[in-house]
Amino acid sequence: MGDPYDISLDPVKMPELAAGALMFLRGDARVARKFVERTYSREQVWDSLRLEATERPYFTPGFPPYLPLVHGSRIRTLDGPATGKFDVTPANPIVSDTGELSWYTSPEKTGLVTVDTERTQALIGFVKANGKAVRNLAADIGNTFASLVLTSLDSRPLARTERMLLVTGARVANTGMKWNANGAAASQGGPPSLVEPVTGTITLRSLQGATGVAATALDGAGLPLGTPIQAKKTAAGWTFPVGEPVTTWYVVTVKH
Asked: Which domain holds residue 229?
């Protein structure tokens, strides 16, 4: 990997971008059902320049930072009445008003984000500590932190598609990469880039009419790596191991 701003050789971010692109271009996540507007006086705008960095990203004291996770958020005017009060109560999990996106928080700072749309689903964060699942995706992994993204490779929902992309990402670093006491990279290191493989089992649930499921690991060029991994039918769904061979993405095929 090159410098922190060059992701073209990142073995985790690039597969995640492929899955994210499908989700974005197809519009898999629905638009918020409600939009919350806020207004600012001209004095507020000037005063915001003097606020501490801890007021990021809205620089609006009193504005609940979690509100845009629930509803859409818009600015009505920058030359009008001062920002009003917002009558909202924080919840755990924080759930979008479409019901598709959830943020689980904890005092131990072991949070989790879930995505649960028809064509893209994900478990991102402290998957093991939370033990959550979404409509068609569950995981039992050994990693403390991971990003698991499952997306349909055609226009059909995950429950009925014949091809899916599964991205399994965890930590990544260059050989010889070093960190300082503040948690910043003191030395970028060099090749080869190293990944922490996501290990454990993935379970695909509620696959309509499925008679067989197989996962094929992909190499850095997106080509097959080894023989397909045959999933086992269980009471929970179709379960298969991940982590061997080491990879960050798989093509999953479903027979009907």
From this structure: 100-255
Domain for residue 63, yes or no? Answer: no
pTM of the full structure: 0.91
User: Which residues are registered as beta bridge partners of 114?
Assistant: 102, 123
- CA 175 to CA 180: how far, in whole Å? 16
Query: pLDDT tens digits for 9-51?
Result: 889 999 999 999 999 999 999 999 999 999 999 999 999 999 9
Domain membership flag for residue 35:
no
Structural domain total, the chain: 1
Structural domain contains residue 231: yes
- Which sign does the torsion angle of CA 220, 222, 227, 228 carry? positive
For residue 223, the one-letter residue type is: L
| pLDDT(6) > 90 | no
Cα separation, 105 vs 85, whole angstroms: 24
